[in-house]
Amino acid sequence: MFTRAVYPGSFDPVTNGHIDLIQRSSALFDEVVVAVLRNTEKTPLFTGEERAEMLEQVAKDLKNVSVTSFAGLLVDFVAEIEASVIIRGIRAISDYEYELQMALMNRRLSSSIETVFMLPAEAYSYLSSKLVKEIAQLGGSIHGLVPEDVEKRLSDKFRVK
Ligand code: PNS
Fold first, then answer.
1. Topology at the third CATH level for domain 4-125
2. Fewer CB within 10 Å: N-end or C-end of the chain?
3. Ligand 1 pocket list (CB less than 6 A)
4. Residue 157 and residue 161: Cα distance in Å, rounded?
């Protein structure tokens, strides 16, 4: 059976932890659609377009991975593109409670969609977009935590003008 999976998120910006999960899910599913949430409650540092561009750059060599953006309910988007799986990464037990709540709520909204939790490599278990932004803003090194293109875009954003 052909399985199309959606990997949704804010990706503000994409980190090496996200990339690790994209690679793992690309090996596991027939097709992976990375879906950037456009209208997030949090005010993002990067626009939806910028976030999608950075993801496209990292996914360009993975033939079964595409990048798009969505607004509204995730389950509606998943149904619209005829996918059946939602991928979410769990780094530590602290992620679990929120992820469980979201997965069960999504199941209530659409019982035919399964959420699959995946573990990133241990080296990325403490990595988050939020910390990367904070470190970059305060002038610390984020080398090795995000792709070089993202590193550059972050330093451009926070450069004192
Ligand atoms: O990277 P994030 O911010 O943890 O991703 C959260 C995301 C985008 C998966 C979640 O906020 C989401 O699905 N938003 C879309 C709106 C929606 O469906 N809300 C109900 C979730 S139960």
1. Rossmann fold (3.40.50)
2. C
3. 8-10, 37, 73-74, 102, 105-106
4. 10
